[in-house]
Amino acid sequence: MNHDPLSDVLASVRLRGAVYYYVNLRDDWVAETPAAPQLAEALMPGTEHVLAYHLFVKGGGWAATDGVPPQRVEGGGIAMFPRGDAHVLSSAPGLHAQRDDSDWQLVTRNDAKPVVVAYVDGVLRPVDEAPIGEASTIVVCGFIGCDLRPFNPLIAALPRLVHLPAREVGAWIAPVLDQAVSESRQRRPGSAAALERVSQLVFVDAVRRCLDGLPEGSSGWLAALRDRQVGRAIALLHERPADPWTIDELGRQVGLSRSALHERFAQLVGQPPMQYLANWRMQRGARLLREGNANVATIAQEVGYDSEAAFARAFKRLVGQPPAAWRRAQRSTG
Fold it and tell me: Most buried residue among 125, 134, 252, 289 by CB atoms closer than 10 A?
């Protein structure tokens, strides 16, 4: 069985969150979402990265972010912003929301989800209940948090705007999402956990479709996974990170010369194989620190370091804290 680096990364970066808004819109409307750092502060304090996705349950609209052509999203479609860019949803392209200094997102951070929101006098506001029949457009907005450090090669490999038309949304995703939202609106027990799981499924499904739809000649980490030899090299490094890898041995395993592997790997991934290995060892070590009780010396050996000191130096250089201090900080924030 081939090792699956995508699943490795998805498991190690701790997808979490699932903050939901059930947004009722009518007539001309526009809603702006700030960039990831502001979102994290308002919705998920302590989270390194927040990405947003929007499911158009009824009606349609336009999704846009700077530097990307606006995309028309019809009912049943999803617009996702994996890199955390500030973005706009609107009834027509080119619209911008009026200034809004309200802190309603912060105020409702701990309310039961989804928070029902309506477009009132040009701004979005939470409401006790919105008459759904009067809405021309209904959008379910979900937010997912994940780690960027020590090493997350996936986020930068994804497009800034992912548009999944209804026909491309996994056939099982849309009804599951609809059911989760419906149950949560009734405040049923377990709805928060259900929403979190569904959000993760939506993101994973979108990533897989990005991978499947990559055009020939693409570069980036996802493209590298599809490359026969570089993808095999990445799988080997993920499967056996503690092995004493050299570029020569890795090349021999995948059927490329040392120089050919180095060049092709760096071209696709953006860094040479041994640097990638060092980064992945740190990510693997971080997960072991966070989730287990092994001491730092044992973890160092498990990820391929001969000494605790060498591992600690490398970890601090990438993360900014020694391993033991980082573990305490992670566990204190939950």
Answer: 289
